[in-house]
Every structure is written in structure tokens, then in C-alpha cells.
Amino acid sequence: MSKLTPLRIVGIDPGLNITGYAVIESFGQQVKLVEAGVVRGKTKGSLAARLQEIHEGVRDVVAELKPNVMALEQLYSHYERPTTAILMGHARGVIVLAAQLAGIEVQSYAATKIKKMLTGNGRAPKSQVQQAVVQPFQLAKAPEPPDVADALAIALCHHFHRRETSLPSALLKRK
After folding, report:
1. Domains, the chain, ranges and CATH?
2. Rounded mean pLDDT of the chain?
3. What are phi and psi of 72, to 5 degrees?
4. Among 31, 44, 66, 108, fewest CB within 10 Å belongs to which?
């Protein structure tokens, strides 16, 4: 009789100053929080130095906590702020590189999909998403800073998406 091991998911909320991360274990319908926190860019001014700090921080999280998959929020930008999208693309790139070098799969989710999966509303406010991560992990309050709650939401989204796509087609038709 072999013991099944849970899937370890690292959810990442990319940011140049604060990158939130959350590692959860997914086993059937159950989830367990392993660790959550932030990778902080300490260097001011130098984009290259901040990107290196993000890469090294995420690399260390992946090396220490050994997730099987990385769930990452897709890049989204308003047309009025293309510079923000470009800078976030850099941060996202070094995060994906950390996953690739560790040999783990990366799954990306749109912010609207994450919100819809957790709250039922793809346009839910941040406060509603923060509250949605409290119950599954039996937390006393929403994690701080909000980047950690966002990372938990992204990891949970992958957990729910994985369960949804693994259901037999007959069950999916009943929804």
C-alpha cells in the first residue's frame, strides 16, 4: 500500500518591491498552509539589482520548500501605464526563470479568474479576496501584507482549478 503525497503549490504575487509567496499542500479536497511570506527588494534605484534579489529570494523559497508547481498571476496592465507592465514583466520573468531552473511547472492565471474562483466574482475587491483565503486555512485574520494574501489566493486558485479539471466529464456537466 503506497502513501500518496500531497501536491505542493507555490503561489506567487509578483512585485518589484514586495513579491508575495505562499506554499500550500493540496491533497484531494484538502489544503494545508506550509509557509507564506514576502521576498523584499532592498535595493533602491537599480532595476537589475532588484531583479536579482527577487530571483534569489524566489529561488531560495523553491529550493527550501520544494513545490511541485508554481502558480503565478498573469501580467495585466492598463494602457495608461505601459511602463508598469514592462517593469512587472521583468519581475515575472526572473520568477519564471527561478521555476524553470528548479525544474518545476509554471501555471498562470488571470486576476479575474483567481477572484472568480475564490469569491464567485471576477471583479471582487482586494478585501474580499483577502477574506476568502482566511477560511480554508483557518486563519485568525487576513495575512499581511496583502501580497501574502494574494499569493495564497493564487495557490488556492491552482488547487481549485486542478480539482475542477480532474473531475470526470459527467460531473462537470452537472454544474
Report:
1. 7-167 (3.30.420.10)
2. 89
3. -135, 140
4. 44
Say which of 25, 35, 64, 147 is annotated catalytic: 147
Asked if 73 is an active-site residue, the reply is: yes
Closest among 146, 161, 129 to 20, alpha carbons compared: 146
Q: Which of 25, 56, 64, 73 is catalytic?
A: 73
pLDDT digits (tens, 9 = 90+) for 30-42: 999 999 999 998 8
| pLDDT tens sequence across 140-168 | 999 999 999 999 999 999 999 987 765 44
Is 150 an annotated catalytic residue? no
3-state secondary structure the chain: CCCCCCEEEEEEECCCCEEEEEEEEEECCEEEEEEEEEEECCCCCCHHHHHHHHHHHHHHHHHHHCCCEEEEECCCCCCCCHHHHHHHHHHHHHHHHHHHHHCCEEEEECHHHHHHHHHCCCCCCHHHHHHHCCCCCCCCCCCCCHHHHHHHHHHHHHHHHHHHHHCCHHHHHHC
Q: What does the pLDDT average to over 6-25?
A: 96
What's this model's pTM, rounded to 2 decimal places?
0.89
User: How many residues are recorded in the chain?
Assistant: 175
147 classed as catalytic: yes
